[in-house]
Amino acid sequence: MPFRSGFVALIGRPNVGKSTLLNHLVGEKVAITSPVAQTTRNRLRAILTTPTAQLVLLDTPGIHKPHHLLGQRLVQSARGAIGEVDQVLLLVDGSQPAGRGDAWIVELLRQARTPVQVALNKSDRVGADADDIAATYREIVSPVWPLHRCSALTGAGCPALVEALAAALPPGPHLYPPEMVSDQPEQLLMAELVREQVLLHTREEVPHSVAVQIDRIVDDGPRTAVLATVLVERSSQKGILIGQGGRMLKEIGRGARLQMQKLIDGPVYLELFVKVVPNWRRHPGRLAELGYRGD
Ligand code: GDP
Ligand code: MG
């Protein structure tokens, strides 16, 4: 059997488990996950190397109806990803029947010529209704798209899924060194880890208007010092993030620091600042600066 390699875009509605799956597959934290929808803003490239294949996975922002400039850019980014890859993995929430959002994505994928495989995720949450739910997806997808069941949380069905994806890639060499798991700069991964903690610790009034900028990473002897700024749109949000006596920011910083230490495998000193930048989401220049490209 020839070695196979190629790019696989993970496509799916927000919250179906794309980031969780990606993290599970590469066995290291490369994408952030949270119970809040739309947490993945940047296309993230994770690299999965098996003895017979190398899959380069792109985590796309969840596709949804855009409401503002940032929303539109998220959709453009997902659309762009479809045309550039060897294969698409359409991830759906298999614990719920197919809905209109799923049908919309299926249409988008049918218009592209890229081969598609479908994974019904969250199989750990279905029981006797599994086949009935699967039938609702069977009904809307193309008959030539293979259907798989998996749980990104428990890992059930994941090896078979990887095998099926690998088998459908073209023969080719390693695209990245086998030991690499991500080609995202450390800085971006660190920013995502801070943003994840903000989402975990705050309620709905904050998350969607938060961006994180890593100002400096200093190799400080045994420790790595990281200076980061959390951008919010309103001063009320800044107040929430800082919290009573700075307690909230401390919690956020502690969580992010622990994750960063895992990422770089060494001690981290993290200093967080909060800055108010009104309407940062509506400034194209600002978006570009933070790495959200409308390509
Ligand atoms: P994304 O928006 O598609 O990237 O979704 P995330 O990966 O951020 O996951 C959204 C939520 O679904 C998180 O709370 C995950 O823990 C949860 N989730 C993801 N995969 C599974 C799964 O296989 N089973 C269960 N029960 N929950 C899952
Ligand atoms: Mg995600």
Please describe the topology of this protein.
Layout: E1 4-11, H1 18-26, E2 44-49, E3 53-59, H2 69-84, E4 87-93, H3 100-111, E5 116-121, H4 130-140, E6 147-149, H5 158-167, H6 186-201, E7 211-220, E8 223-232, H7 235-242, H8 247-264, E9 268-276, H9 284-289
Parallel strand pairs: 1-3, 1-4, 4-5, 5-6, 8-9
Antiparallel strand pairs: 2-3, 7-8
The protein binds guanosine-5'-diphosphate and magnesium ion.
What does the model show?
This protein is an alpha/beta fold. The chain folds into two domains: 4-167, 3-Layer(aba) Sandwich (Rossmann fold); 186-289, K homology (KH) domain (GMP Synthetase, Chain A, domain 3, 2-Layer Sandwich), CATH 3.30.300.20. The chain is built from nine helices and nine strands. Helix 6 runs antiparallel to helix 8 (247-264). Strands 2-3-1-4-5-6 form a six-stranded mixed β-sheet, with helices on both faces. A three-stranded mixed β-sheet has the order 7-8-9. It has helices at 18-26, 69-84, 100-111, 130-140, 158-167, 186-201, 235-242, 247-264, 284-289; strands spanning 4-11, 44-49, 53-59, 87-93, 116-121, 147-149, 211-220, 223-232, 268-276. The chain is globular, with a radius of gyration of 20 Å. The site of magnesium ion (MG) has 5 residues, from helix 1.
